[in-house]
Design brief:
322 residues; mainly alpha; MetI-like fold; 2 domains; two-stranded antiparallel ribbon
């Protein structure tokens, strides 16, 4: 396991270097105008452009510029170094802008992930165990409906029904628990969590159903039944453990993608998280902000894949890493 982990960490570094190189070329080499002009803004003065060009090291060869870019990225001042991590649109460091929004996005993603895992796996298992029953038909309808429903429409429907009509849920906006209390914060996060969770729960329900049905036909399940083991014990200790690998793979990718992919839910519920900020940065040509989030999103996907690979060996004893 240690040798495998070392190799994966090495490949993570190599992959990150490739991604940062591509990102650097896109933002520093390919633009027809000087990157200093892009970073300084559309209405920048010549003095500001000259300052940014000097701070970015654009007077050096391209390979030297890339090394300087990596230096500031590794040292952590990618999000605070003026010129490379300073938003000329918001007039503040990218680090402070990210810090105030990534907590909202991570809270939204993790909370929704817990709900969709619980819903999807439970519905999928019931559908497989009660194959061709009314529960199986209902689960299929549930999956098709919420997979097909646009996420912005689903969020607006939840707001209309539970906030506007019934008045049993809070409206939009972000209310940090440290400032407004845990109850107020939780009340405002339930509907955003449900909106994202219902979108993904259908996929997980169908995947779980297929995996459980396939596993129930295996010889070792028949052997366990022949030995007199109860159905609940067989399902929990043998079937679900064998089915968890594809679900874990999908979960790692989905959760990593949500780090920068929650923009629609954030806009509908006015959460002002990372996804909404990225869209605003693109519209306003805030290149430092877009650059920082690009690297952050790539890192999130790679770390999620590494964690999933490590968890494989613990959830499935058949997997061994050399």
């Amino acid at each position: 396991m240690l040798h495998y982990l070392a190799r994966r960490l090495l490949w993570l570094v190599v992959t990150l270097l490739v991604i940062t190189a591509i990102t650097f070329v896109i933002y520093f080499v390919l633009p027809p105008v000087s990157p200093a002009v892009l970073f300084a803004g559309k209405e920048a003065t010549p003095a500001l452009v000259a300052t940014v060009q000097r701070e970015l090291g654009l007077n050096h060869p391209v390979w030297m510029q890339y090394l300087l870019f990596l230096k500031h990225l590794v040292l952590g001042d990618q999000f605070g170094w003026p010129g490379l991590g300073f938003s000329f649109v918001n007039h503040s460091s990218v680090r402070s802008l990210i810090a105030g929004r990534i907590v909202i996005t991570l809270t939204l993603a993790v909370g929704a992930a817990i709900i969709w895992l619980a819903m999807g796996i439970t519905i999928g298992v019931i559908s497989a165990v009660r194959q061709r029953s009314i529960w199986d038909r209902l689960s299929l309808g549930f999956a098709i409906f919420f997979i097909s429903a646009p996420v912005f429409w689903l969020g607006l429907v939840l707001l209309y029904v539970f906030w506007y009509k019934l008045g049993i849920a809070a409206g939009t906006g972000n209310f940090p628990p440290g400032q407004y209390g845990f109850g107020t914060w939780l009340n405002h996060m339930i509907m955003p969590w449900l909106t994202l969770a219902l979108l993904y729960a259908g996929w997980y329900a169908r995947m779980t159903r297929g995996a459980v049905l396939d596993t129930l036909r295996q010889d070792y399940v028949r052997t366990a039944r022949a030995k007199g083991l109860g159905e609940a014990r067989i399902l929990i200790r043998h079937v679900l453990r064998a089915c968890i690998t594809p679900i874990l793979t999908m979960f790692g990718m989905d959760l990593a993608a949500l780090v920068s992919g929650t923009v629609i839910v954030e806009v509908v519920f006015n959460l002002n998280g990372l996804g909404q900020w990225v869209v605003q940065s693109v519209e306003s040509d805030d290149i430092p902000s877009v650059l920082a989030v690009t690297v952050l999103a790539a890192l999130a996907v790679m770390v999620a894949n590494l964690i999933v690979d490590i968890l494989y060996a613990y959830v499935d004893p058949r997997i061994r890493y050399e």
